[in-house]
């Protein structure tokens, strides 16, 4: 059987507009390329995108080094977080403070005699919240009683006749209310008579050394109760492990007993870097700060008070008009018709 090849006619159909279309697309690409080349981002290489080739190396040494670096970085982050306690919730403390002073002293006042001072005598009236007072020096005007007497210069008005005095007048520098009479003060001058405690105090500078210098050995028990509301956590500076026998004999010491709540006044002033004997003459103000920085984590539980001391008032007499701390306080004692009244008490607030 004889096979004959088939013949087929092939007809090529050409597009007359094909060459024009290709030429148009070529010109459009050239135009776009020129436009991109003129853009600013082309010069700054921000219109380009590139990828990095990933190479995976099978090596125990390099793999170990990689995970070691990762572990060190993770450990550093954890240490910083735990060191700064960033994982914890913080709360402000609610606090109350009370103080109880103990000590007895005896002084010998000029023209008065020996006087025993106990807590009632040297504590004085309360003048502030969360504070206590201890008298360290006194200026006494003895045998005072209410009556009429000439005002003391320069506080009293110098006069010549009764017309120079106004009845019922009082100013901030006077010790009493004027009666309207001009009376003899001494052999050289007259002053307006006043109704006040007579005789009027005249001594202004406190005695040196201080009369109650032995107050240095007085002690004070400070009770501080705190509460963290968000955690319902209550604590006080008298710690649970402290017994009654321990509190009877302990005394605060920065090195040997830093948590004892009983403080010697001399040690308080010494902690504030002051001298008690010098400070007791004109008085002063000592601030006691109790800092509670508690960590309530179960495995790191720690909540103990830290005490710090500093002087708050200006101690230099030549740098202030009213150095130290002083105030007037009356103590009445009736003996027939006489009355005893300490006029000024120098005090130390601790």
CATH fold type of the largest domain: atp-gated p2x4 ion channel fold
Amount of beta strand: 25-35%
Going by CATH, the architecture of the largest domain would be: Sandwich
Largest sheet: 5 strands, mixed
- Going by CATH, the homologous superfamily of the largest domain would be atp-gated p2x4 ion channel domain
Number of domains: 3
Mean pLDDT: 77
Sequence stretches where pLDDT stays below 50 over 5 or more residues: 6-14, 336-350
Q: What gap, in angstroms, lies between the N and C termini?
A: 135 Å
- Could you state the order of secondary-structure elements as H and E? HHHEEEHEEEEEEEHEHHEEEEEE
Overall outline: elongated
Describe the structure.
The protein is of the alpha+beta class and 350 residues long. The chain has three domains: 61-89; 94-142 and 205-349, atp-gated p2x4 ion channel domain (atp-gated p2x4 ion channel fold, Sandwich); 145-198, no CATH class. 21% of the residues lie in helices and 29% in strands. Strand 7 (177-184) and strand 8 form a beta hairpin. The N and C termini lie far apart (135 Å). It is a multi-pass membrane protein. It comes from Salmo trutta (Brown trout). It catalyses: Ca(2+)(in) = Ca(2+)(out). It holds the Pfam family P2X_receptor.
């Amino acid at each position: 059987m004889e096979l004959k090849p088939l013949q087929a006619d092939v007809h090529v159909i050409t597009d007359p507009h094909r060459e024009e279309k290709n030429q148009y697309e070529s010109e459009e690409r050239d135009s776009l390329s020129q436009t991109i080349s003129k853009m600013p981002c082309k010069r700054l290489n921000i219109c380009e995108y590139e990828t990095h080739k990933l190479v995976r190396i099978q090596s125990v040494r390099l793999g170990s080094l990689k995970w070691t670096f990762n572990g060190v970085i993770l450990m550093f982050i954890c240490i910083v977080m735990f060191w700064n306690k960033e994982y914890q919730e913080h709360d402000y403390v609610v606090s109350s403070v009370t103080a109880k002073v103990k000590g007895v002293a005896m002084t010998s006042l000029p023209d008065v005699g020996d006087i025993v001072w106990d807590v009632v005598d040297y504590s004085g009236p309360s003048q502030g919240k969360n504070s206590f007072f201890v008298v360290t020096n006194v200026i006494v005007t003895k045998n005072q009683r209410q009556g009429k007497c000439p005002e003391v210069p320069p506080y009293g008005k110098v006069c010549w006749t009764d017309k120079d005095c106004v009845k019922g007048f009082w100013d901030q520098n006077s010790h009493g209310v004027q009666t309207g009479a001009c009376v003899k003060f001494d052999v050289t001058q007259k002053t307006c008579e006043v109704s006040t405690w007579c005789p009027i105090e005249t001594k202004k500078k406190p005695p040196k050394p201080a009369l109650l210098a032995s107050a240095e050995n007085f002690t004070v028990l400070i009770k501080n109760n705190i509460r963290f509301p968000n955690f319902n956590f209550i604590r006080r500076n008298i710690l649970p492990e402290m017994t009654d026998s321990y509190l009877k004999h302990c005394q605060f010491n920065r090195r040997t007993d830093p948590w004892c709540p009983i403080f010697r006044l001399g040690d308080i002033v010494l902690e504030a870097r002051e001298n008690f004997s010098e400070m007791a003459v004109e008085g002063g103000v000592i601030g006691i700060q109790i800092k509670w920085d508690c960590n309530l984590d179960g495995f790191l539980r720690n909540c103990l008070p830290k005490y710090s001391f500093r002087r708050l008032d200006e101690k230099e007499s030549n740098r202030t008009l009213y150095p130290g701390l002083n105030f007037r306080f009356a103590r009445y004692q009736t003996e027939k018709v006489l009355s005893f009244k300490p006029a000024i008490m120098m005090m130390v607030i601790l």
